[in-house]
Design goal:
The protein is α/β, with parallel strands linked by helices. The chain contains 7 helices and 5 strands. The chain folds into 2 domains: 29 residues; 153 residues, Collagenase (Catalytic Domain) (3-Layer(aba) Sandwich). The longest helix has 25 residues. Bound molecules: zinc ion.
């Protein structure tokens, strides 16, 4: 009897887990609809406004500052504007550093709320566990990151991968792409050399 109850509980727990994973992956349930922001170069997906604010605080790249924002709490539309501005600036800087400028499809940037969610996404994509803090997946042109563990260098690096893999008519070997992407985050704050 007790054993049966335990099995029943386990089953319902698994059902819940499956349901929650579905919500997370598809985002098609109203309560868990991700926040989608389309920028000039990207489509940003956050789970919540709070995640967007956390992300905004972590990305330090020429944040728009005004007297008003010092004396008052920024509204969510201010945060949104800053996020859009910073992400597009970073994207364009990565393009400049690589000298790979041409129109390309908007890159989706899927922001996860925590490490567990990020690793769940990894498992779904690669059918194995991983411990990456972020990555770019070519097949769906999507960058995967965790809002609690991100900084401007990481974002520029992963956007760099998207630019590198889509610029050349043949995708470069992985090692070559990694060297180029690392070059982007290493030189993010430097003046650009003219070629
Ligand atoms: Zn990389």
């Amino acid at each position: 009897m007790q054993r049966w109850l335990w099995v029943k509980q386990l089953m319902s727990r698994n059902t819940l887990v499956v349901f929650l994973s579905l919500v997370f992956v598809t985002g098609s349930y109203a309560a868990d609809l991700p926040l989608i922001i389309t920028t000039k170069h990207t489509i940003l997906m956050f789970n919540t406004e709070e995640d967007m604010a956390t992300f905004n605080d972590s990305i330090k790249y020429e944040a728009a500052s005004s007297l008003a924002s010092i004396f008052s709490t920024p509204s969510s539309s201010d945060v949104r504007k800053e996020v859009i501005r910073k992400v597009d600036l970073l994207f364009e800087k990565a393009q400049l550093i690589l000298d790979m400028r041409k129109p390309m499809n908007k890159v989706t940037v899927r922001m996860h709320s925590n490490e567990v969610q990020l690793q769940e996404s990894f498992k779904k994509l690669y059918q194995q566990g991983g411990n990456l803090r972020g990555w770019y997946f070519f097949d769906n042109n999507t960058v995967y990151l965790n809002v609690k563990d991100v900084h401007e260098g990481m974002l520029a690096h992963e956007l760099g991968h998207a630019i590198i893999d889509n610029f050349l008519s043949v995708r470069p070997p992985r090692a070559t792409a990694e060297i180029l992407a690392q070059y982007v985050d290493a030189h993010l704050f430097e003046e650009l050399r003219k070629y």
